[in-house]
Amino acid sequence: MKSAGGPFGAPWLRAASGLNVVADARTLRDWEDTPVTIRADTMPVREFLDQMKYTADELDWCLAQEVVWIGYADHLPESLELRFYQIEPILGAVDGYDKGPEDLISLIMELTVDAQHTWDMQGRWIQEWNGLALINQTPGVHAEIESFLNRLLNDGAREDESAGAWRKQMDAVLAQRTTVSAEETPVVEIAAALSARHGVQVWVMEEAADETVSLVLADVSLRTALEWIARAIEVNVVVDPSTIRLSHDWPTSTLEFYDLSELYERVPGSDVEDVQVTLEDLVRNYIDPESWDATPDFQIHYWGDQMLVSQQAETHPEIAALVDAFTRAFGE
After folding, report:
1. pLDDT score for 168
2. CATH number of the domain that 207 lies in?
3. Nearest to residue 63, comparing CAs of 140, 127, 1, 122?
4. Among residues 312, 314, 322, 162, which one has the least CA distance to residue 258?
C-alpha cells in the first residue's frame, strides 16, 4: 500500500487500496470535498482503511457482500446475529458479592464495545432471560463478548496470549534508542525521519500536520522522544498494530483484571466496598489522573475478587504496582 491523497470518495479509495469500495450517496455528499491524505509507504489494507477513518472521524467501514462499505457508523450494512450465552456459571462464581444478571449485562455493555459501536445502533440489543444472555450484535462484537465472558469465568486469564503479539512487537520498536535535534522543524518532517530510522510508520494526524517543534533529545527511547514531541504540540501518542499516530485521540483501551482477594483478607475491619472505594480513589488520583475523564473507554469495575480496569496499555504496569504496594502495606 503506497502513500495516497486526494478528494474523499470511492474512486479515490478504490484506486489507492485496490479494493472494491462502495460509499452511499449521503457519505459522498457530505465528504466529497474533504481532502484525505494517508502518509505511509506501505501498510496492511485494514490499517489503510482505519487511517482513512481517523481522517474522516465520523465514518467507519465494514466488509459486506464482497466489497468494502464506507459510511456513517450507524448506517453500515453490518450483519447482525442473535446468540445465546449461558451466564449462570459466571454468576455462580461471584456468589456472596451481591451481583446479579443486571450487573453482568451492564459489564458486557460497558467493556466489550467501543464508543463508535454503541448498543443504541439499530438492531443491536441485549437482555437476560432465565440464566441466558440474549444478544443481537455483529460477529466482531460477539467475538469480544465471548472472550470477555471467558475471562470473567477464568479470573481474567486470556485464552489466546498471542492476541497481544502486535503490542509486544511495537513495544520493542518503541524501546529502540534514538536522537532528535529540531529547531522550529515541522513535526511531519521529524515523523518522517523517525519512520525511516526505526522502520515503523509514524503518522501525524491532519490537525497537527502544520505544527513545528524545537527540542534536543540524545539517546532516549523512541517512546520517550514521541511523548515529548506529542507534549510539545498537545496531542497523544497512539500505538496501532503497525503504525504510531500523533493525534488528539486517546490510545485504545485494554482490559486487565487485578486480583484483590489478598487485599480483602489483609485489611482489618473493612468491608469489600470500603476497600474498593479507597483503592479506586488511589488509582484515579495518582495514576494518570487526567486520562480518566478524557474518554468514556477508561473505566474501573468490580466482579467478585477482581478489579476490572480499562485503560491504555502503558498505564497498566503502574496500576499493578500500586495494587501490589497497597496490598503489601498491610503486611503478611
Report:
1. 84
2. 3.55.50.30
3. 140
4. 322
In this structure, the number of other CB atoms found within 10 A of the CB of residue 307 comes to 23
Cell digits of residue 15: 484506486
Tell me which residues of the chain have a pLDDT lower than 50. Answer: 1-7
End position of a domain, from candidates 139, 159, 179: 159
Q: How far apart are CA 322 and CA 183, in angstroms?
A: 39
Question: 18: buried, middle or exposed (CB in 10 Å: 19+, 13-18, 0-12)?
Answer: exposed
Where do we find the cell 485503560?
311
Cα gap 57→299, rounded to integer Å: 23
Total residues belonging to the chain: 332
Return the pLDDT at 36.
60
Burial class (CB in 10 A: 0-12, 13-18, 19+), 108: buried
How many domains does the chain fold into? 4
Spatial CB neighbours of 25, under 8 Å, sequence gap ≥ 6: none
Which 8-state DSSP code applies to residue 251? Answer: P
Contact 305, 259 (CB under 8 A): yes
Last residue of a domain, one of 41, 75, 109: 75
- Alpha-helical (H) ranges within the chain are 10-17, 25-31, 45-55, 88-92, 101-111, 139-153, 165-174, 187-198, 222-233, 261-266, 272-286, 316-328
Instruction: Find the CATH number of the domain harbouring 88.
Output: 3.30.1370
As beta bridge partners, residue 237 has: 246
